[in-house]
Q: What sequence folds into this?
């Protein structure tokens, strides 16, 4: 999952439209980053041998990673959140862990912008749901509250709006819904809204920015809600749908298979035009995956349209992180590892020529990368097979 640190709600509609009026054109990267670069492994790796790893979040000198256990590794379920200390060079070392009994997966992890709160979602089991911890001591998070949900929550996204703190959560496919919780008081989670999502394998992730929530709802596509932007009077308690789009089924993933996304605010071009969407197709952990990057033009939020795509042969996308100032999209690509893509300039058609660099951090047969995050000038990658890595970016 990956998410933008959402800011207080304000009406970005008019400013967004004005900024998005930059000229259109071909697929040339223009002043974008150089291609043909490479990643360098700095530290980490092969540090979670007993479980499959899942999501990560880095904040300051600490990192938090989940574990996955739909198919247990070495008999161990994904019932642990791991806590990592990052030294002065950014290298990770395992400091502690939190075990949640009677679950199978810690599926999504995030720390609030101010570093005060840790949130993670859990799946499958009697204790599945949303968990909130205080980070006064980041090495030893303190439990504050939980909201248990039958079958669990797949992802949980923190968003600060209008002086309050919310979590936008994806309830699992048995009864799919966007659940919006108020966690302003971390010790008292309050459900504010439950928005049903069509059961075409439900909802997988949510990206919240400038009072808009982008819900990635598998074969229903992406659904955009006003949750405080002001364009349609929506709020976290009463989301209002702005539009939806079913991305192309290119035959790779067996449907739209919309999994995750990132609304790109490009400070170089002064536009908020593109929404990056990850498609997640069929795969086998450690062996194969499928699914492409789809780029949607949201210049007119009421009428989004797909304009570009990227395909990596033999592998499929999972989670994203964007270095907006450098106009680089970093993608976790499962068995393909980590991919860096130039997203400068207009984005049209096939973006295969935009590939900057790629790496399988654990090497062939030991790479199945779940997520990436840029922090402190380094790229951190969490790999289901080979654990947490610190990479030097191209």
A:
């Amino acid at each position: 999952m990956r998410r933008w640190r959402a800011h207080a709600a304000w009406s970005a509609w008019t400013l967004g439209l004005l900024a998005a009026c930059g000229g259109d054109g071909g697929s040339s990267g223009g002043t974008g980053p150089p291609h043909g670069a490479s990643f360098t492994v700095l530290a980490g790796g092969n540090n979670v041998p007993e479980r499959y790893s899942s999501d990560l979040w880095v904040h300051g000198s600490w990192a938090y990673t989940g574990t996955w256990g739909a198919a247990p590794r070495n008999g161990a379920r994904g019932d642990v959140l791991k806590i990592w200390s990052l030294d002065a060079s950014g290298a990770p070392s395992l400091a502690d862990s939190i075990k949640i009994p009677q679950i199978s997966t810690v599926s999504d992890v995030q720390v609030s912008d101010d570093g005060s709160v840790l949130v993670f979602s859990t799946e499958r089991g009697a204790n599945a749901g949303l968990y909130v911890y205080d980070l006064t001591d980041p090495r030893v998070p303190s439990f504050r509250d939980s909201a248990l949900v039958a079958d669990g929550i797949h992802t949980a996204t923190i968003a600060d709006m209008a002086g309050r703190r919310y979590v936008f959560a994806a309830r699992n496919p048995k009864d799919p819904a966007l659940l919006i919780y108020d966690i302003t008081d971390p010790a008292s989670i309050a459900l504010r809204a439950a928005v049903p999502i069509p059961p075409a394998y439900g909802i997988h992730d949510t990206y919240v920015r400038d009072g808009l929530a982008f819900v990635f709802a598998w074969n229903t596509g992406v659904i955009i809600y006003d949750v405080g932007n002001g364009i349609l009077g929506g709020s976290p308690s009463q989301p209002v749908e702005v539009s939806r789009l079913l991305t192309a089924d290119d035959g790779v993933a067996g449907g739209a298979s919309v999994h995750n996304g990132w609304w790109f605010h490009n400070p170089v071009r002064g536009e908020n035009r593109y929404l990056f969407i990850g498609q997640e197709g069929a795969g086998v952990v450690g062996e194969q995956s499928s699914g492409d990057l789809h780029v949607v033009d949201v210049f007119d939020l009421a009428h989004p349209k797909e304009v570009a795509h990227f395909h990596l042969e033999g592998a499929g996308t999972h989670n994203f992180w964007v270095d907006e100032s450098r106009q680089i999209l970093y993608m976790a690509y499962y068995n393909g590892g980590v991919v860096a893509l130039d997203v400068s300039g207009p984005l049209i058609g096939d973006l295969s020529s935009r590939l900057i660099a790629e790496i399988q951090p654990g090497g062939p047969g030991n790479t199945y990368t779940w997520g990436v995050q840029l922090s402190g000038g380094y790229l951190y990658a969490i790999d289901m097979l080979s654990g947490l890595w610190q990479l030097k970016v191209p």
Summary: The two ends are 22 Å apart (CA to CA). DSSP finds one helix and 29 strands in the chain.
